[in-house]
Amino acid sequence: MLLQPNRSLLLGILCATLAIVGCSARKPVVSADPSFHLVSLHGDSLLFTPAIPANQTSESPVRFTFASGAVHASIGANCSAERGPFRIEPAKSDPSSVEIVLPAPERWLSDLEGRTDPDSTEEVQALDAILADADRLQQDGCFAGATGSIRDFILQSVPMRPTESFYNAYGYRIGRRGLDLKPGIRLKIERAYFRAAKSGEEEYDPSRFLGLSTTFFDVEWTSENKTRFQQVGDIQYSPESLAHEVEQGNRDLAVGSLPQEPHYRLFFYSYLVPQKHKRSAVIMGAGSASQLDEFDRQLRALPDKSCKSAANAAACLEFDGFVTLSSQIRVEINGKIQFLDWGATVKDVLPKNRGMKTLKSLKIQRRYMDSYRDLRFDPKDSKMLSLGLVGGDRLAWSKRASFSTPPPTLQ
User: Fold this and answer.
1) Do 83 and 129 contact (CB within 8 A), yes or no?
2) Would 344 be classed as within a structural domain?
3) Rg of the chain over CA atoms, in angstroms?
4) Do 194 and 315 fall within a single domain?
5) What share of the chain is helix, strand, coil (3-state, %, to 5)?
6) Which domain holds residue 258?
7) One-character DSSP codes across 110-125
8) What DSSP letter does each residue of 236-304 carry, written as one string?
9) pLDDT (tens digit, 9 = 90+) per residue, 77-107?
10) Which of 193, 199, 217, 340 has a Cα-to-Cα distance from 333 of 20 to 30 A?
11) Is beta strand 323-333 parallel, antiparallel or unpaired with respect to 394-398?
12) What is the pTM of this model?
């Protein structure tokens, strides 16, 4: 069957019909390229990426090609990979392209929803495996003429629920602690300070709290497509007098000295580690994403080991002590750049005053590979409000009916 849009009642805060058109910074632009589109299926929603046609059926495997006419595949027995419902192979109709097959949306959605540990499902494990295969095949020269990373293309093309769109941008899922660090992310390091503990006192007793230091780093790419960390401003101390009393904050400046590597990942620790190893987060770099996948597994298996001993990474930096490392995302809202805390959704940025009832239009654009694409949806689908925002997203709204192009109707 074909995917049908949700016909639920129009949300009160979106009571006017939302006309969705493309936008760029300070100037509306209607994109002629395939767009993102949100579709409803079995009471849930999936965000279809530009690689997936709007008439994709729920029961049919998703098929598309990568860099058609630009990839020169070395045809051979080792230039294909298949893991469960996922497959990579030279296209039969055009051997200069790579054909990629994903599971049918209905099958994939059933594997995503209601899972407390997504990594335990067979199809999610198959996806991780095919991503590693894509890295290996490209490194082996099977698709030497490819104009980009096949792994990234697959990652950005997999349909996900709106709340899990972080996966397409950063490879992050609930239950997976690794977050790929890419442009559009700002790291925020907050370190707490306490007076020295006396005998019998707890090390981090709130009664001895002195204050906080905060340091920011932007994730950037160099002209050689490597990652670097650019410090934003000086270390901020609260209270300011703390700057003359402590020196630990300087250790966080080591982020800016990390060597430039093609791939970096932030590993969160949401479980308890041994008392003598107070590790809250790790930043690791490597030459390939598949190497970082392996480091991820090693760090989980050896939580009491330092990152240097648990994984032979090209770069490794641990954060210990009473410190929190979080991320923010760079988005454009009504033409103005803002940094939002990780996990922000469309609902979090929309107007919350009474004027919201007069909202007439909403336009969203998101990066896909190397260009911006429109994000189209049925204004009656409340799942749109739960769309997780990612770095580079552009949102704008108007209280006037100034846009007249309606979103496409899925039938």
Assistant:
1) yes
2) no
3) 23
4) yes
5) 25, 30, 45
6) 178-323
7) HHHTT-S-GGGSHHHH
8) EEESGGGGGT--GGGGGGGGGGSPPBSEEEEEE--S---TT--EEEEEEEESSHHHHHHHHHHHHH-TT
9) 578 999 999 999 888 877 678 899 999 999 8
10) 217
11) parallel
12) 0.80
